[in-house]
Amino acid sequence: MKNVTFLLVLIIVSVTACQPLQALSLNDSLQNHLNRLLDKWHRDAAQGNHTAYIGAMTPDGVFIGTDASEYWTTTEFSVWCKPHFDRKKTWDFHSFNRNLYLGREGSTAWFDELLTTQMGVCRGSGVLVKKEGTWKIAQYVLSATIPNDIMKQVTALKSGTDSALALKSIFDKYGLTGTIMILDPETNRFFGYDPARWDSGYLPASTFKIPNTLIGLENDMIDTNYIFRWQGEKRRLPQWEKELTLKEAFAVSCVPCYQELARKIGPGRMKSFLAMMNYPGMDVRTDNIDLFWLEGNSRITPRQQIGFLRRLYEENLPLKKSVMQEVKIIMMNETTPEYTLNGKTGWAVRNGNNYGWFVGWIEVKGKVYFLATLVEPKNQEKVDDFNVARKTVTMAVLRWLGIINGDQVK
Fold it and tell me: Could you list the active site residues?
């Protein structure tokens, strides 16, 4: 019997807890009080009364503006708006339609209102809470109102800004700053994130293993069966401390192996073939033949990386087709039923800052996209996850853009 009684109580409690929040009717006195509070809050903004305006909000309150980047705590909002209030350059909102609702417990209320503003008609909404007998604003959300019949035009106008905000959130999620440039060759359209960096030059780092391999194969310095020997010396990474095939050395980005190859090629031949392939910006000399892509004055931009990759993919380099085909196979990074990814990572340090590349192309649904990602860790003291983050952020962007399937980063 006790068990039956307990079960019945549990069911009653569960059903009650699952019922939606219900509003109580506001009496005239409370409704007038809350209306006066909100009207005064808007009036204090118009008159530049900073202390009263911020004082009407709870200490842990939130103000959310019309721009997607505008999310402030009460303290942050106070700091942001103080200079405007000091100059009396504020905003003048007037509510002409407001709905108020009271929570069942009587100490929480929520509202929505239509406002006349310098941005036209806007919608405000938020939450009021009663603490120690005083009502304050715990949250306020200001939204622009967009008529349905012009929504398509507005969406088109702000699509670039929306995309940049979403892609920034992906970089932020992985603790990175940087850029990604993508080319759709069918339309010859470039898109991605932070285009201001697409023409800035960086050391190519290990992405230079792509042209290095091409030149080595073209000149018979190596072949696809070539073995890089290891003499037992200590190397920076344990995966380099063994004999490696060409494909293995490329995959694990073995710097000593490719330094050996660059020395075989020599500075004269290296400069000549880089010029023939239109791989720009490399400072190649006798004294830096095995370091010029890792340190010094060599620079390549994301746009130049993509141009070179496209010529390789389309086999438009002045090299034997068999060589270009062999390198494309060596570059195979990932194959799934949905897509094939060819690419190469790179990692360099300049002026004490780490930065890294992921460059290549992805073939999906009968289409190819060329891409160049350049990232830097926000915290240069913590680079443990940086090795995988270069590719991870690239794939996350491709998912968000809908180029490949998968959960979008929110």
Answer: 206
